[in-house]
């Protein structure tokens, strides 16, 4: 008889989830840590705003897909490079967005709570709540995307006039006493250096084609190729490989992948920058 052990991990467990777990698991044991993220790890700020003011700010987490699309469109129209992540994207598209965000090919990800749970992005410095979430536990999951592994992080949240009760619920749940501050967005803010330094290229081959990160790096840094210092993170899927390269050498890198060979075979290459 094959024995197995089932483990469930989460920053929070609702009573409903605990009840479901007890009904499905055999004699489960619950293990919890004493402390959550402290204010020393994640610095949290709450700002009073009205609905019209929101469209002037750089944002990340939204409660709905429509808000996500609208914010993403506003940012792009302002010349700010960003990607969006929500439930209408196919799994293949979600994977590509997360790869590009993780490897530095975009600085801003506008997302619904599809991205809030289980998302682990290294060195994510700040999250912004465009909307306060409907559930207090979701707030914990959102801000937990920053301040990872003991590093400091920032969490900004916008509070509408009729949402003070949500802030009160967050304070009660986290045993804090945050107050919302007035935010003056009438002053013009100069935004610069937001263009990502990397761009993502992809080839239609991956693990199933026995392609390794070293194979891709070798194809890019062959004689008359680009420098290894210009190559960033390489992510392999079963049938697809993503590689981040410095933006100023992206055309040369694309040509090397498109016209060269990897493991003696030619693969189709693509620039992912929309």
Entry summary:
The protein is an alpha/beta fold.
Overview of the molecule:
- This protein is of the alpha/beta class and 274 residues long.
- It has two domains: 42-182, P-loop containing nucleotide triphosphate hydrolases (Rossmann fold), CATH 3.40.50; 198-272, RRM (RNA recognition motif) domain (Alpha-Beta Plaits), CATH 3.30.70.
- The protein is built from eight helices and ten strands.
- It has helices at 15-24, 51-54, 65-77, 91-102, 136-143, 164-174, 213-220, 250-259, and strands at residues 42-48, 83-85, 109-111, 126-129, 153-159, 180-182, 198-203, 231-236, 241-246, 269-272.
- The strands form three sheets. The protein has a four-stranded parallel sheet, covered by helices on one side. A four-stranded antiparallel sheet has the order 8-9-7-10, with helices on both faces.
- Strand 8 and strand 9 (241-246) form a beta hairpin.
- The chain is globular.
- 31% of the residues are buried.
- The model has no long low-confidence stretch (mean pLDDT 84).
Biggest β-sheet: strands ordered side by side in the sheet: 4-5-1-6
Catalogue the unreliable spans.
none
Total DSSP helices: 8
CATH level-3 fold name of the largest domain: Rossmann fold
The main β sheet shows up as: 4 strands, parallel
Describe the SSE topology.
Layout: H1 15-24, E1 42-48, H2 51-54, H3 65-77, E2 83-85, H4 91-102, E3 109-111, E4 126-129, H5 136-143, E5 153-159, H6 164-174, E6 180-182, E7 198-203, H7 213-220, E8 231-236, E9 241-246, H8 250-259, E10 269-272
Parallel strand pairs: 1-5, 1-6, 2-3, 4-5
Antiparallel strand pairs: 7-9, 7-10, 8-9
């Amino acid at each position: 008889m094959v024995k197995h052990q089932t483990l469930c991990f989460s920053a929070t467990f609702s009573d409903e989830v605990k009840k479901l777990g007890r009904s499905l698991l055999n004699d489960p044991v619950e293990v919890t840590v004493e402390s959550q993220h402290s204010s020393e790890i994640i610095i949290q700020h709450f700002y009073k705003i009205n609905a019209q003011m929101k469209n002037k700010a750089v944002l990340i987490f939204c409660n709905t897909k429509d808000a996500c699309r609208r914010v993403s469109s506003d940012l792009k129209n302002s010349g700010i490079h960003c990607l969006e992540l929500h439930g209408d994207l196919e799994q293949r598209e979600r994977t590509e967005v997360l790869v590009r965000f993780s490897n530095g090919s975009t600085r801003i990800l506008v997302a619904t709570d599809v991205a809030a749970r289980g998302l682990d992005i290294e060195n994510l410095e700040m999250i912004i709540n465009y909307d306060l979430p409907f559930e207090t536990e979701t707030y914990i999951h959102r801000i937990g995307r920053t301040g990872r592994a003991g590093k400091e992080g920032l969490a900004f949240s916008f509070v509408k006039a009729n949402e003070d009760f949500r802030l009160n619920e967050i304070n009660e749940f986290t045993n804090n006493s945050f107050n919302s501050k007035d935010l003056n967005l009438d002053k013009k803010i100069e935004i610069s250096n937001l263009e990502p330094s990397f761009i993502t290229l992809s080839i239609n081959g991956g693990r199933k084609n026995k392609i390794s990160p070293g194979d891709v790096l070798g194809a890019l840094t062959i004689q008359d190729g680009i420098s290894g210092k210009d190559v960033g993170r390489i992510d392999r899927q079963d049938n697809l490989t993503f590689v981040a390269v410095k933006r100023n050498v992206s055309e040369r890198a694309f040509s090397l992948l498109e016209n060269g060979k990897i493991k003696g075979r030619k693969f189709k290459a693509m620039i992912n920058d929309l």
